[in-house]
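Lecture notes, continued. The same structure-token format from the folding unit now serves as the input rather than the output. Read the line below as a description of shape only.
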């Protein structure tokens, strides 16, 4: 805990100091490089923000713009597990993004890719992503920033292979490889992000079953993957969780962290459906464990607009209010939280996608 606090304090101190106050010796090439030069409408593609090999950095700020008329930014993707992230902002209407973070080892990382940005092509044209002059890489173990030689990326977005005009609404390529998302447009992007990030990697066939109620074991597995939570603490097994199950590691991690508590008989009930308020409790405990939310909250303020707020169980009131405050939980179009309803797999994907964007700990699976 002390080491983590030191990391955050060092990173925060570097970011608040004026850029001009630091020595500007040594130039680093910082480039936005697309993994594909040409894509078609509806395709998803990654643009890597990369630095030159020789530079080790302790902190980073990646600031830039993109042509939002041609592509939508789905999520930032962090491949270096040693990086902690302090700021994660992007605006698809304005075409802007800002990501800031630090090396948790306080030694400096030489990882070549700082962050990858996952886009979806919307219409044909020459897509541009520009890094701005106030991008920064903080030198490892020094109170200084590298000066940066910045290069930007462009991607040619084409219509379909027949050269015909493509309707984004009707004819665009699907955002996910699952073939049963028809009628779930509101969840398709979220399911696609979960798939891209490896959260759904245990689904062998092409069906996501969006209308099916998600089980407790399935949800805690996806939650731990989204938040990249791990624990070496040894705890007593749940009596009903099979050690050979792919869910075992994630469920036991959640127990070790105090996120999953099970029942009085020592069971987790991994195959049972899970209510919306129980999902919110698991998510909020995870966010507290990661120090991503302030536990002090006026629950009445954030639950006031929901007409069924009085049906929320006492143990879940703070949790649901906390997720509303974080804009992870929004309720339905009738201003209902439906706390006792079981959560579907599509609803879970949407909530976890919002959590991934909020917690800024998304990573390739």
């Amino acid at each position: 805990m002390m080491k983590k606090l030191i990391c955050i304090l060092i990173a925060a101190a570097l970011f608040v100091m004026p850029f001009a106050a630091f020595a500007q010796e040594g130039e680093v090439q910082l480039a936005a490089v697309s993994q594909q030069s040409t894509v078609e409408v509806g395709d998803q593609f990654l643009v890597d923000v990369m630095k030159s090999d020789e530079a080790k950095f302790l902190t980073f700020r990646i600031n830039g713009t993109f042509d939002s008329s041609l592509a939508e930014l789905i999520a930032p993707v962090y491949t270096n597990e040693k990086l902690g992230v302090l700021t994660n902002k992007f605006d698809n209407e304005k075409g802007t993004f800002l990501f800031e973070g630090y090396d948790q080892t306080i030694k400096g990382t030489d990882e070549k890719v700082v962050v990858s940005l996952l886009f979806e092509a919307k219409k044909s044209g020459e897509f541009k992503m520009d890094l701005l002059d106030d991008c920064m890489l903080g030198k490892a173990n020094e109170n200084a920033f590298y000066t940066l030689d910045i290069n930007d990326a462009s991607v040619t977005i084409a219509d379909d292979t027949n050269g015909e005009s493509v309707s984004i609404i009707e004819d665009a390529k699907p955002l996910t490889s699952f073939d049963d998302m028809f009628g779930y447009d509101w969840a398709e992007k979220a399911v696609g992000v979960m798939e891209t990030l490896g959260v759904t990697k245990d689904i062998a066939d092409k069906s996501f079953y969006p209308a099916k109620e998600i089980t407790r074991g399935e949800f805690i597995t996806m939650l731990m993957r989204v938040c990249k939570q791990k624990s070496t603490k040894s705890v007593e097994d749940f009596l009903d969780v099979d050690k050979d199950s792919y869910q075992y590691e994630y469920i036991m991690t959640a127990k070790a962290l105090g996120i999953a508590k099970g029942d009085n008989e020592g069971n987790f009930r991994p195959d049972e459906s899970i209510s919306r308020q129980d999902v919110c409790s698991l998510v909020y405990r995870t966010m507290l464990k990661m120090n991503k939310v302030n536990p002090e909250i006026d629950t009445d303020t954030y639950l006031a607009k929901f007409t069924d707020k009085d049906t929320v169980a006492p143990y879940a009131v703070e949790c649901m209010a906390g997720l509303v405050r974080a804009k992870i939980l929004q309720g339905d179009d009738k201003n209902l939280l439906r706390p006792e309803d079981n959560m579907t797999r599509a609803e879970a994907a949407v909530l976890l996608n919002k959590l991934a964007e909020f917690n800024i700990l998304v990573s390739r699976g």
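Point for the exam: Confidence is low (pLDDT under 50) at residues 1-25, 165-172, 360-365.
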